[in-house]
Automatic annotation (TrEMBL):
Name of the molecule in the record: Vigilin
Organism: Sinocyclocheilus anshuiensis
One cellular component term from this protein's GO annotations in UniProt: cytoplasm
Coiled-coil stretches: none
InterPro entries xref list: KH_dom, KH_dom_type_1, KH_dom_type_1_sf
Location of the K Homology domain: 28-96, 101-169, 170-236, 241-309, 313-382, 387-479
SMART domains xref list: KH
A Pfam entry, by short name: KH_1
Superkingdom, taxonomy of origin: Eukaryota
PANTHER family attached to this UniProt entry: SCP160 (PTHR10627), VIGILIN (PTHR10627:SF34)
Length: 484
């Protein structure tokens, strides 16, 4: 009979089989660690890691050599025991041979040139190791040491040293002294000047550092030397024919110097052929820098300082003038206000829009000129106020036409009538005839109501005393007419 095993018994037996299988595999595998001085690692890996690759292929073991950037001496070998053992023998042999036969030489190479010996991603070091079998040891970046050590077979060190020097000197870093304010002129508009140089020497990197009075050049030595000569010539030329200066102007006036849409500053730059840098508001700086032709720089400086001085002395004043006088001050087609502006050309006079119903007239300009203009306009307004006195004289409506008549015609009729029938009223005739003379003599304006109006009032406008005199003359005429 067949009695099946319970599930639990079956699982236990399966686990035992697996454990035994795993243990048997583990018995065959091994992990070994070899401590080998870091300086000999390149000889174990070989150039471009070709040698360590061959070792792994030959032995079947996995060999882990820490990269040059990791400061560890331990090489880890994993695989089957026989494979690991074989790999260890081969590694030990390489190490012992190199330790016995390799010698070193130390040379001084400028720190700035180390990167050219190393090459991109260490490729140059690999090239030298591949061609000569010599390992080149470069001090870490954070070290100030300039000592480069070459390690390898004695008969191969000479060749390796030649290659190290060739790589170190194949590229160079140089600098050209140039005032920082000239940098943008050297670069040119949209980089045009610099492009002419870089197109000829594309391998040379040219660096301008803001605030530093130098230009850094980096690239193949011969190319750098050619570019350096070209840039030095440009700098010499610019220094000989260009200048700069700085002026101090209160930041609150900067926007006025710039003008609406840059109108002021653009005009100055264009006229004097200079560059003007006005600092932005966030810098809170007083310094304005002017660069360009020496004469243009001085002329622009003078003009900007004069503008700034004028602004510092500038004043804005609001005059309260009744709106009813504005039109009279401005005059027909602005003739009156033009006379005032011609008299005070530095003062800007702004009248409010008539729809605003405002009495404020604004004056802006140099302090002293604004004061003079204010006094003059106050005098003009005072005269207008004085001449704006008006008085209304009630004259019987039936006498209005007798006093003036249409186009003054009735004056002649009344005078003829009175001479023919009332010779005694010579005084009345005289006053009637010379109503227009009353205006002239009293310097008043006399307005009669329209013929179709029911008003009896004749309005006299002018100085108070003159209005009273004209009033009395007209009332005298009415009195004579009533008596007649």
């Amino acid at each position: 009979y067949f009695f099946p095993l319970s599930l639990k018994s079956w699982l236990n037996q399966s686990n035992n089989i697996n454990d035994n299988f795993i243990n048997s595999l583990q018995d065959k595998r091994a992990v070994e660690r070899m401590n080998i001085e870091k300086v000999y690692h390149p000889f174990i890996t070989g150039a471009y890691s070709k040698l360590v690759g061959e070792l792994m292929q030959e032995t079947g073991a996995r060999i882990n050599v820490p990269p040059p950037s990791v400061n560890k001496t331990e090489i880890v070998i994993t695989g089957e025991k026989e494979q690991v053992a074989l790999a260890m023998v081969k590694i030990k042999k390489i190490y012992e041979e190199k330790k016995k036969n390799a010698t070193t030489i130390a040379v001084e190479v400028k720190k700035s040139q180390h990167k050219y010996v190393i090459g991109p991603k260490g490729n140059t070091l690999q090239e030298i190791l591949d061609r000569t079998g010599v390992s080149v040891e470069i001090p870490p970046l954070d070290s100030s040491s300039e000592t480069v050590i070459l390690r390898g077979e004695p008969d191969r060190l000479g060749q390796a040293l030649t290659e190290v020097y060739a790589k170190a000197n194949s590229y160079t870093v140089s600098s050209v002294s140039a005032p920082s304010w000239l940098h943008r002129f050297i670069i040119g508009k949209k980089g045009q000047n610099l492009a002419k140089i870089t197109q000829q020497m594309p391998k040379v990197h040219i660096e301008f550092t803001e605030g530093e009075d130098k230009i850094t050049l980096e690239g193949p030595t011969k190319d750098v030397q050619i570019v350096q000569v070209q840039i030095e010539a440009v700098v010499t030329d610019l220094v000989s024919r260009m200048d700069y200066t700085e002026i101090s102007v209160d930041p609150k006036f900067h926007r006025h110097l710039i003008g609406k849409g840059g109108a002021n500053i653009n005009r100055i730059k264009e006229h004097h052929k200079v560059s003007v840098r006005i600092p932005p508001d966030n810098e809170k700086s007083n310094l304005i820098r002017i660069e360009g032709d020496p004469q243009g720089v001085q002329e622009a400086k003078k003009e900007l300082l004069e503008l700034a001085s004028r602004m510092e002395n500038e004043r804005t004043k609001d005059m309260i003038i009744e709106q009813r006088f504005h039109r009279a001050i401005i005059g027909q087609k602005g003739e009156k206000v033009k006379e005032i502006r011609d008299k005070f050309p530095e003062v800007i006079i702004n009248f409010p829009d008539p729809t605003q119903k405002s009495d404020i007239v604004q004056l802006r300009g140099p302090r002293t000129e604004v004061e003079k203009c204010t006094k003059f306009m106050q005098k003009v307004v005072a005269e207008m106020v004085e001449n704006s006195f008006s008085v209304s004289v009630p004259i019987f409506k039936q006498f209005h036409k007798n006093i003036i008549g249409k186009g003054g015609a009735n004056i002649k009729k009344v005078s003829s009538y009175f001479l023919d029938f009332y010779p005694f009223s010579t005084r009345l005739l005289t006053d009637t005839l010379f109503l227009s003379q009353i205006r002239e003599e009293t310097n008043t304006k006399i307005d009669l109501p329209a013929e179709n109006s029911n008003s009896e009032m004749i309005v006299i406008t002018g100085k108070k005393a003159s209005c009273e005199a004209a009033k009395n003359r007209i009332l005298a005429i009415q009195k004579e007419l009533v008596r007649i």
